[in-house]
Amino acid sequence: MSVNANRCTLILPLLLCSLSTAIGDDWPIWRGPSRNGVSAEKNWQRNWPASGPTVLWKTNVGIGFSSVTVADGRLFTIGNSDNQDTVTCLEAQSGKVLWKHSYDCPLDDRFFEGGPTSTPTVDGDHVYTLSRQGDLFCFEAISGKIIWSKNVQQEAEVRVPGWGFSSSPVVHENKLILNVGESGIAIDKSTGTILWKSGAGEAGYMTPHPLKIGDRWFALIASGKFYQCVDLESGTVAWKHRWLTTNGCNAADPIVDGDQVFISSGYGRGAAVLSFNSTAAKVVWNNTEMQNQLNSSVLVDGHLYGFDGNEGGEVQLKCMDFASGEVLWSHAGLGAGSLMVADNHLIILSETGELSIAPVSSKVFEMTSDAKILDGKCWTVPVLSNGLIYCRNAAGELACVDVSS
Prior knowledge:
With 405 residues, the protein is mainly beta. The chain contains two helices and 33 strands. It has helices at 3-22, 152-156; strands at residues 38-39, 54-60, 69-71, 74-81, 84-91, 97-104, 121-123, 126-130, 135-140, 146-151, 170-172, 175-178, 185-188, 194-197, 209-213, 216-222, 226-231, 237-242, 255-257, 260-265, 270-276, 281-287, 298-300, 303-308, 316-321, 327-332, 338-342, 345-349, 354-359, 369-372, 383-385, 388-392, 397-402. The strands form eight sheets. The protein has a five-stranded mixed sheet with strand order 1-27-28-29-30, with no helix packed on it. A four-stranded antiparallel sheet has the order 2-33-32-31, with no helix packed on it. The chain has a four-stranded antiparallel sheet with strand order 3-4-5-6, with no helix packed on it. The longest helix has 20 residues, at 3-22. The chain is globular, with a radius of gyration of 21 Å. Mean pLDDT is 94; it is low at 1-23.
């Protein structure tokens, strides 16, 4: 072997090692690969100059509150214009439109701006989307070709909840699990065939959360009146916990930690931790100190970080002890914002479009970087993927912020 060949042999592993530390993570599903709002991504810039981070691009994707998913260099989201929803696929790095698909769907702006509220789900070569009226699509991720589509609400003969379906599709084995109907519905992800469905009672607004108990798979699914544990093979409700809120609005996703789960809703309802098994659940604690009206909290090292309160009222970012429900600190001034976590830092988007970074701490809240990124109302959770943070407002303006190291 020549000297140059030896040199290449030595250099190649070093280059691959360097690339592996520089490349971040895709974010192909709602709340990320671990379904908990926490990213494993590291080596991103969390300390910004006074001028703020670089905004690589901005575009408008239509009115709505759909977050983004990112996979294989492509970004997916949904918006509404002129009573049409549009599923948009962009090049994640540049914002270039790769494909779009539009279909009739009312804006339905009752008490808020309206538009889609669920987020696309990427599963390998396919992308799944659900509209507020029950329009369910399976697209080819690269081209936007429709593999199959149907209106699942009409076929299942269930009610559309007051603010429309908000569940992001959940892929589990060969199934799509949706919060459609009283305790969910399962669809064959390859064909669109309904495998099982539930009663016509009003669905909740959170995305189903799969979990394994013993050797069986279940999902936590909220209706307008209950949090339920549903067997994913049969659709049978294994147990349910009564949880009443104004207008049946249970929107925040549950947070599972071992054999316990945190649930929370706004409108004065508050939060609880339940211990559970495959047949029953019981209350460990409950209080009104954390009311997640719109967006879910995030759990890190036994502490919950989330927004407490109803939009339009007094809302505070809080840190709460998962085991006891004790509030450890609170911070006002961010409105009805949202957050995710990466590399032990909170990534926060305020209701008015301020993007902020703060170390995860159960002792004190201390913002280390912040910048005004968007105007208008911002309820949609920011997403960090591959060194880029994506932020969206209600009017559909989508911004890509470069925090690559």
